[in-house]
Each structure stands twice: as C-alpha cells, then as structure tokens.
Amino acid sequence: MLLNQPNLDALFISFSKLFELAYFTEAQPLLESIGSRIPSNTRDQRYPFVQTISGAMREWLGERRVQNIVLDGFVVTNKKYENTLVIDRTDLEDDQYAAYSNMLIPNLARHAKLLPDVQIAAEIEANNVGFDGVPMYSAAHPIDPSGQNAGVQSNLIATNPLNSTNLAKAQARMMSFRGPDNIPMGSYGSTLLVPPSLKFVADTLANATFFPDVKNGVNAAFGSQTNVWQGQFTVVVSPYLTDTGDPTTAVWYLLDTRTANMRPYFWQERVAPQLVALVDPSNPNVFFHDEFYMGVRARGAAASALWFKAVKSTT
User: Fold this and answer.
1) Helices and strands counted in the chain (H then E)
2) Residue 38: beta bridge partners?
3) 290 φψ region: left (φ > 0), alpha (ψ -120 to 50), beta (else)
4) Which residue of 54, 66, 186, 235 shows the fewest CB atoms closer than 10 Å?
C-alpha cells in the first residue's frame, strides 16, 4: 500500500466502520439489566433525591396537609478513559490488514462497549457511600436521612449461601424497607446478580420446576421440592465480580430492576466511546518511531444510586 494521506484516510475510515459495527453488536449485560444510562452535559453532575415525602395517599378531610420536602443528593464527576493501539508502519506498507480488521478492531470495540459494565462492577465491589451518607451496602441506612425519624435498616445479609431459603430472606428484607414516613417503599427483588460460580444455582432457582433444597441440614433428604421461585427472577452473571469459586461462599445480590430509570446503579455518560487515529505521515511521532496510533476515548462514570433496591448476601 502506498502510504499517502488519501490512502491512509480511506483505510482508517474502513477501520472506523468496523469499530462501529462491532461496537453496536456487543451487549452490555450489567448496564442493560441492573443499571440506567444517564446522559451528562457537564463535568460534575448533581443528583437530588427527595428525602422526606409521604409514600401514601390519605383521605382528604378539611384542608390539604402540606408536607415539607427536603432535597438532598450527591455529585458524580466524569472520568476519562482510553485504550490505544500502535500500528507498525511496515504492516500497512506490506498490506497486513487482516489482523487489524479481524481481531484488533473488533476487540477494541468490545472493550469500549463493555466499559460501563466493568465500571459498574467496580462500583459494586467498592461499596461507595451513597446519597444517604453511608455505603451502598450497610447495616446503618437511616430510615430518615434528614434525621427527623430515628432508626436504621440494613441491606446486608450475612452467612447466606444462595439457596431457596436464603433467597426468601433476602426478598423479605427488601420488601421491608421503609421510607421516612414508615411506609414500605415498594421494593421487590427481580434480578439475581451472581459471579460465575453461582450461575448453575441461580439458573436453577430462576427456571427449574423442582429444586432439591436443604432440610434440617440434609440435602434432598425429602426429595425434590417444588420451586416456588420459578419465573420470578432474571439471572445476570458477571465475570467482573469477585468470585471465591465456591458456591457456598460466593457473594450474590438481589436487585430490584423492574423500572429502567429507578435501578440501583447507573452509568453517567458524558462522551460515548470514540475511535480516533493519528495517521499523518508527517507527524513527529510517526517520523521518529515509524508507527501510527489508533485508540478509543470516552468520558463517564459509574455510580451507586438507590440502596433500597439492592440486598447483598455475604458469607
């Protein structure tokens, strides 16, 4: 290939098309299942939450009962991300395009598309402080973050391997979460988020007609039990979560993801991944190193949102 500017421009236009095709065909399991995508138009995005508002209607007797509304929230700052490839000039001179077209460009697109999933998983593992001033998973979530109503509640369940009995505990815990007015918040677990070692157990709970449960510490001694959880959950398996490799000790999560814009996590997107290239033969980097550069640039951030739509089971 003659390495003049028109030929290089045409080549990288074809690379961009390959990148775009691979990018839009790649799935985003975590973002699509447990997170929300929120566009951002500034470096620091503030998210307010209504902290004290009654969750229930009442009979209208006399005048309206005016309630005080307190807006609180937190700020999420966008971060920059990159992934860069170096292309040896001699590869292009010798028409060695196949490795880039068939392997490197699709893989670059795949990692760009999975950026929100990787960052959401990192956010889950980090257990950062949320809008109520305590970590996302905590035994000390205030019932009323404004401090007017004392009391705390927990979205942690300890020593809890994934089985039908412990899943019932997690579901009951989630359904018991209350707002500042002591009215249940309406949370209901609809998604099981698990690492790879729990895929079989989670799939069995979600889909099997019968499930051999543990009774009095003896596995399946009473025969196969009817699986009351069949069809009630979506299973999401993420390889980016910490995995002990042992189904009896692996951490799992029950999440309420029924409403797309009211999920426990979100990806704040400032700039979607873009493929950029340095292909000018007269550029000093090309001149001194005999190399071209191509890479992806993106801006965004993952964040924890609604703790009362998540329960974590630890061991």
Assistant:
1) 9, 17
2) 268
3) left
4) 66
Pairwise CA distance, residues 237 & 235, whole Å: 7
Q: Please state whether beta strands 218-219 and 214-215 pair in parallel, antiparallel, or not at all (unpaired).
A: antiparallel
Residues 304, 133, 168: CA angle, nearest 5 degrees: 60
Which amino acid, 165?
T
* Inter-residue contact 87 to 291 (CB < 8 Å): yes
Summarised one tens digit per residue, pLDDT across range 139-190 is 999 887 766 667 899 999 987 899 888 999 999 999 999 888 788 888 999 9
| 198: amino acid identity, one letter | L
Tokens of 225: 């039990």
For 170, what's the count of Cα atoms within 13 Å in the CB-facing half-sphere? 31
Query: How far is it, in rounded angstroms, from Cα 210 to Cα 4?
Result: 67
Could you tell me the pTM of the whole model?
0.85
Grouping H, G, I as helix, E, B as strand and the rest as coil, residue 136 is coil
Closest CA to 236 of 202, 281, 272, 271: 202
Produce one character per residue of 58-88: b if its CB has 16 or more CB atoms within 10 Å, e if not.
eeeeeeeeeeeebeeebebebeebebebebe
End-to-end CA distance of the chain: 60
